[in-house]
Amino acid sequence: MKKxxxxxxxxxxxxxxxxxxxxxxxxxxxxxxxxxxxxxGADGAYFRxxxxxxxxxxxFPLLSAVGAKTRRIEIGTGVIxxxxxxxxxxxxxxxxxxxxxxGRLQLGLSxxxxxxxxxxxxxxxxxxxxxxxxxxxxxxxxxxxxxVLKGEGFAEPNPQPMFQNPPGLLRLEPYSEGLRxxxxxxxxxxxxxxxAAKLGMNLQSSTLKDDETGEPFHIQQAKQIxxxxxxxxxxxHARAPRVSVSRSIFALVNDxxxxxxxxxxxEGDKIGFLEENNRSIFGRSYAAEPERLIEQLKxxxxxxxxxxxxxxxxxxxxxDYNAHVIESILKHIAPVLGWR
Length: 340
What we know:
- By secondary structure, the protein is of the alpha/beta class.
- It has helices spanning 23-40, 59-69, 87-101, 134-148, 190-198, 217-235, 255-261, 290-298, 301-305, 319-333, and strands at residues 3-8, 44-47, 74-77, 80-81, 105-110, 183-186, 202-205, 208-210, 243-247, 249-251, 270-275, 278-282, 286-288, 308-312.
- The strands form three sheets. An eight-stranded parallel barrel has the order 1-2-3-5-6-7-9-14, surrounded by six helices. It has a three-stranded antiparallel beta sheet with strand order 8-12-11, with helices on one face. A two-stranded parallel ribbon has the order 10-13.
């Protein structure tokens, strides 16, 4: 059994060919798609976060709105760039969204990827400390967030407060119990996956990672997941971890599917350089008639290793079509593969 959700980047463009022509469209359609996905029986509605781009950016108002409009589906991010985040504000915002949703928030974080502007986090008021890289800063922000999500008091109370305080040091409010165990780390390498395991974060692995062995993407990703679970076990955490992978998967069941994606699943993995001297491997997309698609997905070792599958959706094609994409996987693919 697997949890199956969708992952949306929330792209928008004023182009006449786009079904998502404004930021308002992107936000409101994201809410509508989450509602539709819940009605179809999907398990998760996840959203990517990018700054300085015509995509979804500030996640917590959206997550709170989705949480208020749904009742069962998990709501989450995949992922938030921690170079841009104030850990204490983030803890308050995340707790609010989690409480509104009744404890359904699954918060995916990462060290960040190449962005639209140079050192965009500086415009948000953040700067690495002496001897620290921007990625060190992201991990520092993350560990600070994890610490305050424990719900332990750390702030000295005012002896003459406006309102009466409980005894002892004060914690951030509101506090949402259990949220600390629903924090995920988007790892692009085996080493960062192992770091996440040591800190007790769940693992998100996307369609991109460092090319560490030259093997096919799905094999490298499966090895990353196994390395993560090994360190998790060695670290002695009391609970079992969760692991998600994301994929572009399209079951071609009608002429519109074939027109949009009939050639999308013919290509293999790609190699590139997102950062200088850092070779990356990009996983393939899947698009085929259901019978062939099932056989292809059986060979994907990383999907087999994960307990959660996030389907990346082409959000600019509209809510109805994306609901159809999700339904096609739930109806034609998941039962045959034992995911349902």
